[in-house]
Structures are given as structure tokens and as C-alpha cells.
Design brief:
The protein has 15 helices and 14 strands. The protein is of the alpha/beta class. The chain has two domains: 155 residues, Dna Topoisomerase Vi A Subunit, Chain: A, domain 2, CATH 3.40.1360; 287 residues, Rossmann fold, CATH 3.40.50. The strands form two sheets. Strands 8-7-9-10-6-11-12-13-14 form a nine-stranded mixed beta sheet, with helices on both faces. Strands 2-1-3-4-5 form a five-stranded mixed beta sheet. The longest helix has 19 residues.
């Protein structure tokens, strides 16, 4: 009897899909392989629910992989009700990279890793050398993807070997040379961003989001209800992308064609999360973000700001509740391998002694105790440095925490701000030209001196480690 086989470069409207996709209909388990011959090898062994990706493994050196994985978007409906997904990719570096991305997109909690015998790179090798029964054993002995609970060193032997051979991959950079010296961006991270009201936190996050989208093809989910409408948010994003004003009556206004080009780029890289009934519970935001990971492979998520979420403390104190939620967000970032940015306002800030200027805030100034500093992987502060008469100002980005040394270090980077297009333009801090620098109160390590004094005066119980 003949049967229809949906090929890897076929599907509706010529869209790429999995090879043998129709064999997943009415199935609750799936086997994903790296090549058509491997999917057919499993079928020879009696496992017809095996499919193959259409484009093979992923080169570990390649950063822009979204278009290579379009088939996941085209086939997402087939995987919604899968209970188990066996990742039977090759055991080389491209196969491991593919396996990691498939697990991230499909959800690690239902993914199982298929290991092959020594000397076998893929399923076809096993079939040819050892036969069908041995190939079935590979499925029967598959290992649940390690996420939580007890882990063994041998569970990560492939990843550790890849790290030994190739070292840490480079983090995503913004293109701002001074800021890139301080911090780079990886998946599975939680970064807390704070700053005084109207000092430019949201605007800076928009620019960072677009920078990583342009330079590294990151796509994003963003929950930012403090923008009056999505249209107003889009206006700002268009201005940042084009570098020209959007509205009438401004000199050098962007053309309609430039606006459309910017809108198309934003549409391809940014997905706005905004529940229709304004029920801003964290669970709903994360549920939507999970869908974006599966459907669009987002690499970044911005929640801006914390105080717009509906917080349900129950019997917990604010400190305990905050700690629980921050750990929940770290876990979410880790299992989906995304970088999650959480923007939070500080408490009312004190002014500097004998000055109208505010102190530079820290993560400790956010309501909810030291958890904001202790739990976050990274911490950034956006501060607007004013002259004493408030007639001039410029932004400074403080990197106040970097958990891992391969990611970066603490310090600060200074910027200018172009009001006409809402762009941040990095200053050259090695050639100080602006007289406002005289007003900056900074210690050699890049921290505000008041923050260092506060740190030194903390008890061990306050620090939390």
C-alpha cells in the first residue's frame, strides 16, 4: 500500500516542514532526527512516528538561526499534545546545537535525549551496524532532559566536551563598545533593570532590544503596558530604528517608506504581550511567552515594569513573595534558554547631600529587600545625570552586578541622548569633554560611592550569601 509522505521541503504553500510529518497525526510521542535516512531507519525498526528536520544540524558558530527553524512554526500544531518527544539528533556539535534549540522551543519537560552506542553518530549507523533491536533500545533507554532535581555529570558529557573543545560561545553584544566591555548577553539569564522614574529605563530597553535584534537576529516578547497604546510604542521603536522623527512638524522627518521598513522589521522581531482584559497576572504573561518561544523562537523577554503585574502575596511577606517570583522567572529563563529582562522602579530616592540631585539607585533600593540583587544574574541601573540647575543632562548605564566573569564585569558607560529620534549615543569616556562629568560622584570601581558605603555597612544576614 502506498502512503503520502510530506517531504522536508514541502507542505502548504511550499513551506518547510518535517519529513514524514503526516506520521505524527494522532500520536502522543514523536522521534525527531537530523536526516531523512535516520527517520527511515527508525521506521525500518518499527517506529513510524519518526520525523526529520528539513535542514540538518545547526553550525555552532552561526548566530542567526531563526529562518533555519521556520519549520517549527509551520508544524507547531503537531506538537501541542505530544507527551514525549525523543530528540534523536547526531552526536556531533551541530547535532547537539540542534538538540538544544529543539528542546528550548518544544519544552524541555517533555523532551528525552537519545544516545547512540560508541562509534555510531546517528540512527542509521546503529541500524547498519547492530540492527533494529539495538535502535529500539536507544529509544527505550532515552534519558529525560535534565531540568530539575538530581543531575549526574554524565548527563552533560556531550555539552562538557563541547565546552572543553570550543570554550564559552561569545555573548550577544550591543555594538556600544564601552557597554560591551562590561556585559554581554546570553540565554538562561535574568537581568534586573532599575532607575528613577523618567530617567529612561524603558527607552534604553527598547534600544537594547533593537540592537540585539539587528546584530544577532534576536526576536523578542515584550510586556510593557505603561505605554499608552501599542501604536505609541511602535512610534518610538520606529524613531530609534530610522534615526529620524516620526511626527509632522519636525525637521528631517522619516519618509513613509522608511516608516514601513521599520514597521516590517519590528513585526518580524518583536511580539507585544498585552492581555485583552488587562488581567496582568504573571502566569498569563509567561504562558504567552512560552507560546512565542515555540512559535517564533524568541530569545529575549522584557517585563516592564514589575509594579504593573497583579501580585498575589497570600500569606507571604513582600520579601518572601519577591524571592519566590524572582526564582520562578530565573527558572523560566533557564528552561526556555531566553534572556529575561525585568524592569522595576526603586523606592522613593533620597537626594544627595547639599544638592537637589538624586542619589544613584541600586538594586537594593527596589522594594522587596536584597532579593533583587542576590537572585538576579545581572543588574543594571539607568541614571540621568543632571547639572545642578537641571538645564543639561545625559544618561549613564551602571552595570552593578554580573554573576559570571565570562559574561562581563561591573562598571558604567555614559551616553548622549538624541531627543529628536530617542536614540542613545555612547560617549567616549576616555576623552571627557562634557562639563557635567564634574557632577558625577563615582568611586574607581564604577559604583556610586554611596552604594559602596551602603554595601560595606551591610551585615552578612542582609547580603544573603
Amino acid at each position: 500500500m502506498w502512503k503520502l509522505v510530506i517531504c522536508g521541503d514541502g507542505g502548504k504553500s511550499g513551506s518547510k516542514v518535517f519529513y514524514k510529518l503526516n506520521d505524527l497525526e494522532n500520536q502522543t510521542e514523536a522521534i525527531i532526527t537530523e536526516g531523512e535516512i535516520d527517520a527511515l531507519s527508525f521506521e525500518v525498526a518499527g517506529l513510524i512516528n519518526a520525523v526529520s528536520v528539513p535542514d540538518g544540524g545547526i553550525n555552532p558558530e552561526v548566530r542567526q538561526i531563526q529562518t533555519k527553524l521556520d519549520y517549527l512554526d509551520n508544524c507547531s500544531e503537531y506538537f501541542k499534545n505530544m507527551h514525549r518527544i525523543y530528540l534523536a539528533t547526531d552526536s556531533d556539535a551541530p547535532g547537539i546545537r540542534l538538540r538544544e534549540e529543539l528542546a528550548r522551543r518544544l519544552g524541555k519537560t517533555r523532551c528525552w535525549i537519545v544516545r547512540y552506542p560508541d562509534g555510531c553518530k546517528d540512527a542509521n549507523d546503529v541500524l547498519v551496524k547492530y540492527g533494529s533491536n539495538k535502535l529500539k533500545e536507544c529509544i527505550n533507554n532515552a534519558e529525560l532532559y535534565p531540568i530539575e532535581g538530581i543531575h549526574y555529570a554524565n548527563d552533560r558529557r556531550d555539552e562538557l566536551k563541547d565546552l572543553y573543545d570550543n570554550g564559552f560561545p561569545n555573548g550577544a553584544k550591543t555594538g556600544y563598545s564601552n557597554l560591551d566591555e562590561l556585559i554581554t548577553f546570553y540565554g538562561s539569564q535574568l537581568t534586573v533593570v532599575t532607575g528613577i522614574l523618567s530617567h529612561g529605563k524603558s527607552n534604553f530597553m527598547d534600544q537594547l532590544m533593537l540592537k540585539l535584534a539587528i546584530l544577532h537576529n534576536w526576536s523578542w516578547g515584550i510586556f510593557s503596558p505603561e505605554n499608552a497604546t501599542i501604536e505609541i510604542h511602535l512610534l518610538r521603536l520606529c524613531e530609534i530604528l530610522v534615526g529620524k522623527p516620526f511626527l509632522k512638524d519636525y525637521n528631517n522627518r522619516m519618509t513613509f517608506e522608511e516608516m514601513e521598513s521599520a514597521r516590517d522589521f519590528i513585526n518580524d522581531h518583536t511580539y507585544f504581550i498585552l492581555p485583552d482584559n488587562e488581567e496582568y497576572r504573571l502566569e498569563r504573561i509567561l504562558e504567552a511567552a512560552s507560546g512565542l518561544v515555540l512559535k517564533h523562537g524568541i530569545k529575549g523577554l522584557i517585563i516592564d515594569p514589575w509594579n504593573t503585574l497583579e501580585h498575589q502575596y497570600g500569606s507571604d511577606s513582600e520579601t518572601i513573595y519577591t524571592g519566590k517570583v524572582l526564582n520562578q522567572l530565573k527558572y523560566f529563563a533557564r528552561i526556555h534558554d531566553i534572556h529575561l529582562f525585568l524592569v522595576a522602579h526603586p523606592r522613593k530616592m533620597a537626594r544627595k547631600k547639599d544638592s537637589k540631585l538624586f542619589e544613584v539607585p541600586t538594586l537594593y533600593d527596589i522594594s522587596g529587600s536584597a532579593n533583587w540583587f542576590n537572585i538576579a544574574d545581572n543588574g543594571m541601573v539607568i541614571y540621568r545625570q543632571f547639572s545642578e540647575d537641571f538645564t543639561e543632562s545625559y544618561p549613564i548605564v551602571y552595570v552593578q552586578k554580573v554573576k559570571h566573569k565570562f559574561i562581563g564585569k561591573t562598571g558604567f558607560a555614559k551616553f548622549d541622548f538624541d531627543v529628536s529620534c530617542q536614540r542613545y549615543i555612547e560617549k567616549d569616556r576616555h576623552n571627557i569633554k562634557n562639563e557635567l562629568d564634574a557632577y558625577i560622584d563615582i568611586c574607581p570601581g564604577g559604583y556610586p560611592s554611596s552604594w559602596m558605603n551602603e554595601w560595606e555597612n551591610k551585615n552578612d544576614d542582609d547580603v544573603g550569601f
